[in-house]
Amino acid sequence: MNAPNASQIIVIPARRAHSNHAEVARTIGIDIIAGRYGEGAKLPGDAELTLLFGVSRPVLRESVKTLVAKGLLSTKARVGTVVRGRAEWNMFDPDVLAWHLDAGIDKRFLRDLSEIRLAVEPRAAALAAERRTEEELDVLRQAVSRMKTEPGASDGFAEADLTLHVGVATASGNPFMRSIGAVIEAALRASFVLSAPGSAREHDIAVAAHERIVEAIADQDSEAAAAAMMNVIFNGLRRHGAAG
Predict the structure, then answer these.
(1) Is pLDDT above 60 for 3?
(2) How far apart are the first and last CA of the chain?
(3) Alpha-carbon distance 81 to 29, whole Å?
(4) Exposed/middle/buried for 85, CB within 10 Å: 0-12, 13-18, 19+?
(5) Going by C-beta distance under 8 Å and a sequence separation of 6 or more, which residues neighbour residue 26?
């Protein structure tokens, strides 16, 4: 799989909303994330938006409340509804993550995701080496076994990759780390699809790198497990061209 260049945006459709206000919130949220409403921009007035979406004012206001709660918008008297800076967005909100996938994830998103992974996953691997059960170790070994048999660019390879990383978070015994893995699961799956090894050689390298994580956890070698996890994350960055 070719790595995306600096301007390429990969769109991964997410689930559809199930109510009028949720669908309006989703549409505006995607527009904000895609940059159609820039940071600090003022949204059109209620009359224009209700006409645009074909909804009532109460539905529109509920949608705006949703986006305010997620950190994307602020509302002020005599100012209106304004897009907040990206640093204020709740990136751990499942909807905000899903809207990023709908809007199209780029190198910045992939780099930001890798940075939070580097902050959490090596430590999770180290803890897993200390605390894992035999059952949890079996999950990790099965994930590596599936990675060996699945083509690198397949959904099956990405799913096995995800199973391994979520399994490491679970084996850490820290519920916060497991929760982070669950929250960003969709983004991780997208990242693994984009960074999938495109050649037989890359496939073997990726599998061997993941196998080293599992071996270190099995050997209860915390330092080796953390180092192996860091190596896997950096290799993924390199493959989808978001490093640096």
Answers:
(1) no
(2) 20
(3) 13
(4) exposed
(5) 16, 17, 95, 99, 102
